[in-house]
Amino acid sequence: MDAVWAANRAYTPGMCLGVVDRSVKLIRCYGKTVPGPNGQRPTQDTLWEIGSASKTFTATLFALRNSHPAHASTVVPLRSRIAGYVPAVDGKVNIPRRLTLKTLAQHYAGLP
Which residues pair with 18 in a beta bridge? Predict the structure, then answer.
């Protein structure tokens, strides 16, 4: 993970990387949340803006979860509104109500 940060530190002020292998979870955070003196070191609890790569990753995990037999009784419909799954920040959910899991998975959500 240190090598990933070293290769990207010129392009991003900070990042958190995580690896899960069975029961082992490893999280490393690097840099600052924003460039300059006001940035803080990110933690595993830092909220990040979703980027295009994580949209694909999220859609894949969503599809794998819904196709797994262990979750047959709790399938999440694609028409579910995203706002119902996003935690509130400062008491607000800043996701437009019209957005669904399907629009997110298809990259039609209009999110950055």
Answer: 27
Question: Mind giving me the DSSP string for 24-75?
Answer: EEEEEEEE-SSSSTT-----TT------HHHHHHHHHHHHHHHHSGGGGGGP
Q: What is the pLDDT of residues 7-47, one digit of tens each?
A: 888 888 888 888 888 888 899 999 998 888 888 999 988 88
pLDDT for 111: 65
- Residue 109 host element (H or E): none
At 20, is the secondary structure helix, strand, or coil? strand
pLDDT digits (tens, 9 = 90+) for 84-100: 777 777 777 777 778 88
SS3 19: strand
Query: Which residues neighbour 33 within 8 Å (Cβ) at sequence distance 6 or greater?
Result: 13, 14, 39, 40, 41, 42, 46
User: By the 8 A CB rule, do 13 and 31 touch?
Assistant: yes
Half-sphere CA count of 52, side-chain side, radius 13 A: 3
